[in-house]
Hints:
The chain has 2 domains: 4-111, 2-Layer Sandwich (Phosphorylase Kinase, domain 1); 125-365, Aminoglycoside 3'-phosphotransferase, Chain: A, domain 2 (Alpha-Beta Complex). The protein has helices at 4-8, 57-76, 125-141, 160-173, 183-192, 198-204, 244-255, 273-287, 293-297, 299-320, 332-349, 351-365; strands at residues 16-23, 30-37, 44-49, 99-100, 106-111, 211-213, 222-224, 230-233, 240-242. The protein is built from 12 helices and 9 strands. 2-acetamido-2-deoxy-1-O-phosphono-alpha-D-glucopyranose binds next to loops. Magnesium ion binds at residues 26, 28, 216, 235, 237.
Amino acid sequence: MTDILKIVQEFRIKGKPNGFEKTGSGHINDSYRIRISPEGSQEYLLQRINHHIFTDVPLLTDNILKVTKHISQKIHSGVSGVPFVGLSLIPSGNNIFFHKDEDGNYWRMFNFIEGSRSFDLVPGPELAYEGGIAFGRFLSLTSDMDATGLTETIKDFHNIETRLEAFRKVCIDDPCNRVAEAVKEIKFIEARADEMHTILSLGRSGQIPLRVTHNDTKFNNILFDSNNKAICIVDLDTVMPGYVHYDFGDAIRTGANSGAEDEADLMKVNINLVLFKAYSKGFLEIAGEFLTEVEKAHLAFSARFMTFIIGLRFFTDYLGGDTYYKTHFPYHNLQRARAQLKLVQSMEENASAMETIISDLCKKSN
Ligand code: GN1
Ligand code: MG
């Protein structure tokens, strides 16, 4: 077992580490909250980076440094309306902001944001609205960064072409003999595959701009204070060039779902239009000022697109033998995929209502 407190010593922290606990519900990295004495001292968040997924840790670190420095500078220069508490990487002994241990694992450390909490399921429209403001502001804060100055930490992350290719390949290879029992899901995916190229086509033809996007805007990546005000956006591993639709869509997938991401009872999985409207309202109050008409016109669709592509990825991982996402029980990825595909279906049934909500909000923000 890794000696967590020994790893902590590799970083330049203030105070003495005196305990830790595992925290967070991410599917990729492992996170530990590090307690520091004397009591009341700044605590830290230690993370083991999954280097099988983020294969170039120095480049990943460089991206995060660029983004956190950019946001901190804005906070310190008092840009109005910035509610964010700065997240910063803690230097390691050799000043490179990560540590590689004897077993080849990579570790990094952030300041722990005291008194904050996050929500896997959104409790109500007030929080959804706050979340929309937070991700709108993240986009606005990074809008003057040069997108080409950041590297793609995972190549083709939301590229539907390569995601479908990987899916079709695993359907043919069928390494775990799981295809025969998954015909219904395969048909569901193939029936929608063409439509799901929309965002990529708009980008390739220059109709929507590349921006600095977060790309993993799960609602639980927003930290709230005890007054339910959003104070920080975390999980910056995939901040890189992307389209606004990736961020808006993924936030709706998780922030306006009436069920959990891996809900087993599909009856519980539906798009919640009240939460959808509240999130969209907050988001457009900020981002409505700088998004183009073409970008706005595809926001409602992007929720369906991102739900589809994440469902496709869970399903591909299931068919391939569960090698990418952490799973907590057998068939977990299949259960996640089914819940996502059910949410796609619910969004299809509510597509015109979602379009109307967005176009009404856009009229107001004009
Ligand atoms: C992963 O970091 P985490 O576990 O929240 C994944 C996202 C998916 C998400 C689905 C690097 O995010 O793309 O949307 O799971 N991150 C990576 O819950 O693949
Ligand atoms: Mg993540």
